[in-house]
Each structure stands twice: as structure tokens, then as C-alpha cells.
Amino acid sequence: MNTPIVVGVDGSRQSLRAAAWAAAEAALRHAPLHIVNAFGIPGAFDGETKPPGDWLDPHRRESESIVRAAVEGAERRHPRLVTEQESVYEAAVPLLLRRSEGTRMMVVGSAGRGVLGDLVVGSVVTALATHARCPVAVIRGEERGGEAPVVAGVDGGPASEAVLALAFEEASVHGAPLVALHVWADLNAARIFAGALAPFDVEPVRQAETRVLAEALAGWQEKFPDVEVRPVVEQDSPRQRLLEWSRRARMVVVGSRGRGGFTGLLLGSTSQALIQHAGCPVLVIRR
Q1: Residue 249, domain extent
Q2: Average pLDDT of span 82-90
Q3: Reading across the β-sheet that carries 282-285, which strands appear in turn?
Q4: pLDDT for 274
Q5: Among 71, 144, 159, 249, which is 20 to 30 Å from 150 by CA?
Q6: How far apart are CA 283 and CA 106, in angstroms?
Q7: Pair 263, 161 in one domain
Q8: What pTM, to 2 d.p., does this model score?
């Protein structure tokens, strides 16, 4: 079964941009596109309480209009794309988390308004990146083509396999090179302990961390022989290096949690910084 890509829209320019990105991704993968708007207010009209009709009816019509506009835009750009549309009186987070089950990817814009208006750094994106059952794409920054690479943040931990699987797939689908980035030390700590670390020879550590990346990449080139891979091992702040790479990348792929060389790769630090400040779309995988 060809699982769908789901995009949340709220009528803002950023969410329509996310819908266009999701449509292009779905078209490349020959996957259906599910466009959804949730127009419930968290905490309001809970339980058996229903909103009054003079509130519900115009909000439902607005929601349906928002979804219809996104669908028309997607179908205009990709006439063969199979689309589904959904307008639901429900809070955004529980609806989108449910839709993430059995979904190829969840896509949201980097900012918005209304009920889906927290789509950057706010409750919706944080909840999705933390709890969604599929990769979450936050569409922000510039969208680059050509030789712009897919950049994968690899720490050698449990999430690395999922990160690389998605990064190789994206690079293959887009015909883009892949940069596999492993950052093995945080220079902020190095500055603090500079005196103690001065006589320390970092070269054996660098060699060991190079092996970590090589082991993580083992077998992937055989699965994706069409993808040009550039392994990069650096001693730096993971957050800083990923943000710098995002300024010239097609997209950045990271896990929602990390360890080892990416000890900062926890939602709210490196992943959160990318969601807020990356110069390109960010794909976050929860593992």
C-alpha cells in the first residue's frame, strides 16, 4: 500500500508553502497527499459541550475553504496527484498525532495563524516532533535544488539508522548528493576545559569518531548506488554545524533525540534550534 503524506494547513502563506512542498514530495514518490485543517480550540467546548452554531458554522466553512484552496493548488501543480481533504472540529495536536499513524511523513509550515498557528517552536510542532509516529517535515528557510545536498546528522546511536534511511531515500528521490555529518565534540565544553585538554591528543579520538561514521554508513551505498555520499567528521558544536550546513542544504535530517557526538540532539536544543532557525526544510525522526 502506498502510504500518504499528510500536511496540516491553516490558510497562512507558510502553510500553503508547506502544502506545495508536500505535494511535490508526494508527486515524486507517487504517494497520495492528505491535506487537513483542524479548527477546534484546545480546552474549549470539552466533553459533551458543543460550540454554538453561530460559531461552528462559519469556522467550518472557513476551514473547508482553507483545505480546498490547498488542494486546488496542489492539483494545479501536479495534475496526476491523488489528494484527500479533511476539515475537522478538533484540536490540532491530537488530530495530527492520530493521522501520523501509518503515514509516510507529516508536513507543517514554519509559522502560521489560528488553531494551527503554533507551527514553529510552538506546541503543535513540538508535540509532533516528540510523539508523531512518522517523520515530521518543518518547511522553513530556502528551498534549494541543483547540487544542494541532503544533510544527515549522524551520531552513531539508535536513531542513526532511521535518519540515514530517510536521508538516502530523499537524496535518491531528489537526485541530490548526501552529506553525512558526524560532530564528535562540543567546542563549548572544550573552551571551558581548555587548560586541562591542552596536552590531550585529539587525533586518536578523531580516528575513532571517523570509524563511528563509517560503521553507520556501512551498507547504505549498496542500497542506494545512485547517491553520491560525502562523509564529514567535525569537532564542533552540533547545533552550530547543522545550522551552518542548513544555509546551503536542500534539507537537514535529524533524530529528535541523540547521544554521543550529538548529545545536544534533544528536542528543545539542537532539534529545536533547527526548527526555529534552520536555513532550509528540517526533517525530524522520533526514535
Answers
A1: 150-285
A2: 94
A3: 83-88, 33-38, 5-8, 105-109, 136-139, 282-285, 251-255, 150-153, 178-183, 229-234
A4: 92
A5: 71
A6: 9
A7: yes
A8: 0.86
